Amino acid sequence: MSRQVNCVYLKKEAPGLDFQLYPGELGKKIFDSISKEAWALWQAKQVMLINEKKLNMMNLEHRKLLEDAMQQFLFEGADVHIEGYVPKA
Fold first, then answer.
1. Residue 70, domain member (yes or no)
2. For residue 74, what are the CA distances in angstroms to 1, 26, 58?
3. What's the CA gap between 18 and 75, in Å, rounded?
4. Record's Pfam families (predicted)?
């Protein structure tokens, strides 16, 4: 039986992550209130963002930019705008 969380992204009870995937306080917040489904949605956006902006995860500024986008996406309901990406209708 997977653990349930009240997912702030999906605004409903849903299966939670199996373990904390992100370090620190933010990681704990994600573990406690983001579902597997919402995390998977973020990961897809993250890949597009990294590719589009040619982010280097060794670069502290790039990691900060990605972390800010992650927080806005997961907790503030902001969509991540990907230049030239048009979702399939």
1. yes
2. 24, 11, 23
3. 19
4. Iron_traffic (PF04362)
Each residue's pLDDT tens digit, 4-30: 999 999 999 999 999 999 999 999 999
What is the 3 state secondary structure string of 14-58? EEECCCCCCCHHHHHHHHHHCEHHHHHHHHHHHHHHHHHHCCCCC
Which amino acid belongs to residue 9? Answer: Y
Q: What residue type is 68 in one-letter code? A: D
pTM for the whole structure: 0.87
Which residue type, as a one-letter code, is found at position 82?
I
Residue 88 lies in a domain: no
Query: Would residue 53 count as lying in a domain?
Result: yes
Please say whether the dihedral angle defined by the alpha carbons of residues 15, 19, 20 and 22, taken in this order, is positive or negative.
negative
Of 67, 64, 19, 63, which is closest to residue 42 (Cα–Cα)? 67
Residue 50 lies in a domain: yes
